[in-house]
Amino acid sequence: MDTTVEMHPSSRMLARISWVSTAGFGENCHVGDWNCFYRHVDLPADYAVPVPLARLVFCNIQKVFGPTFACGDVPNLTQH
Questions:
Q1: Domain limits of the chain?
Q2: Residue 73's pLDDT is what?
Q3: Nearest Cα to Cα of residue 59 among 33, 77, 20, 78
Q4: Do residues 57 and 38 touch, judged by C-beta distance below 8 A?
Q5: Is residue 35 within 8 Å of 28, Cβ to Cβ?
Q6: Which residue(s) pair with 6 in the sheet?
Q7: With 70 as the cut, is the pLDDT of residue 41 above it?
Q8: Contact 22/35 with Cβ under 8 angstroms?
Q9: Strand locations in the chain, DSSP E?
Q10: What is the pTM of this model?
Q11: Which domain of life is it from (predicted)?
C-alpha cells in the first residue's frame, strides 16, 4: 500500500511533485527493487527550476532480490 505524504502542485500545473511512503518493512517491489518508486526528480531545495530542466534520477541502485524469486518467468515490464 502506498501513501502520498505530501503533494506540491506547481504554480502553473506543469508538474506535480509528490512524496510517497510505502507501508510495511523491507523490500516491497515485485521486480526486486527496495520499493516501486525507483526514480526521483532532481530539484533544488527551493523547487525554482523550469520543469524541462528537472531530471529523473534512479535511486534504487541494486536489486534486493531477483525478480524471478517473486514472479517466476513473467516479463518485467518496468525494465530499468
A1: 2-70
A2: 76
A3: 33
A4: no
A5: yes
A6: 19
A7: yes
A8: yes
A9: 2-9, 16-22, 39-42, 55-58
A10: 0.36
A11: Bacteria
